[in-house]
């Protein structure tokens, strides 16, 4: 399963955080609004409770009455949701809006003048926000202890909270979209140094530059510095390995020359078979040394060279065509003059030299060399009209390039393949009926 990119993971995490934060903030705002609405309702009920208590009087018969009721018309509308009630001994006064309902006030003890707040059921199954006060009337009213209460249905408060929630949701949605987009923009600009770091790593790998450099933000600079240090250490180790390989090859030269001299002395004594065996062994050892030297030279190499293919092909053909084998062949070249590859000139010469020399050894009458540039690469095709090679050997060459020297077409093919792989190319070999066709694909030089 493919893992999400860092940018996408951060964006998703940011979007989730925005949604969660807005949900929490909205819940808190709704709760604050509900608390504010209830406080306002309690304040209004407190004022109306004061009006109810202040409006108490005695009629001519001495009965307690509410001479000046609150002015709110809802008190006169049955079941309007706003009610008042006064209890004084056996006397119970109620607003018209209560109709035949009695507020079920709890039987608690109230200090004189203190307000208690209750949530009582109403006859419709809802809840009433109720303010209750116990008051001792003045001497003119008989010093009677009364319990006055004013109640408001909470349905209005719930409706106000619901309306506030509905009004809040669109703004939250717009805010969420704005914050998520802002997060994406922040990520785009914040992660640009990492994208630049990746491009420079690719440039270092392809040979466009040698180091990542130090012009990065301080958060990314330690990584770039460590990568450059790693590259320095690797180049140092590779250089040391190349020197050791060169020293080893140099150490082999004297023993190999001694073996060739011994073979020459054996031949002079008439021991041709023994001389031939020694020469074959020495030649195999020399070629293996050459191969390892090529590997050590190619290790870690990245080049920005632009080597013209036509010039290298012309130089190699001019040399090979003068050999006894090459002089008898018809050489045909089709290489555009402007075609260049991003390969070191010496490496290109060694790779093409191996292919062209191999073709000249196995061709009967003709060797054809052509080059073209399909899809951003350069394909160099070397074809002879010889007998070709067995099909199973071709598959072996494709899969196990290290055994190319066992195919009968020389160690040079293996070296050529290694040069191609070192620069990001490839070597393809196939029978062409007649002959063998070797196609070397290499990266095209920037134009």
Short description:
The two termini are 39 Å apart. The protein contains ten helices and 14 strands. Residues 398-409 have low confidence and may be disordered.
Characteristic key phrases:
447 residues; alpha+beta; Heat Shock Protein 90; five-stranded antiparallel sheet; five-stranded mixed sheet; 10 helices; 14 strands; phosphoprotein; HATPase_dom; membrane; His_kinase_dom
Shape: rod-shaped
- The number of strands is 14
Q: Level of helix content?
A: 40-55%
Could you state the oligomeric state of the chains shown? single chain
Share of residues in strands: 15-25%
In the sheet with the most strands, the strands line up as 4-3-7-6-5
- The number of distinct structural domains comes to 3
Low-confidence stretches: 398-409
CA-CA gap between termini: 39 Å
Largest sheet, in brief, is:
5 strands, antiparallel
Q: What's the Cα radius of gyration?
A: 50 Å
Overall mean pLDDT score? 81
Structural class call reads: alpha+beta
List the secondary-structure elements in sequence, H or E.
HEEEEEEEHHHHEHHEEHEEHHEE
Secondary structure tally, helices: 10
InterPro entries: HATPase_C_sf, HATPase_dom, His_kinase_dom, HisK_dim/P_dom, HisK_dim/P_sf, Sig_transdc_His_kin-like_C, TCS_sensor_his_kinase
Keywords: Kinase, Membrane, Phosphoprotein, Transferase, Transmembrane, Transmembrane helix
Catalytic activity: ATP + protein L-histidine = ADP + protein N-phospho-L-histidine
Organism: Thioclava atlantica
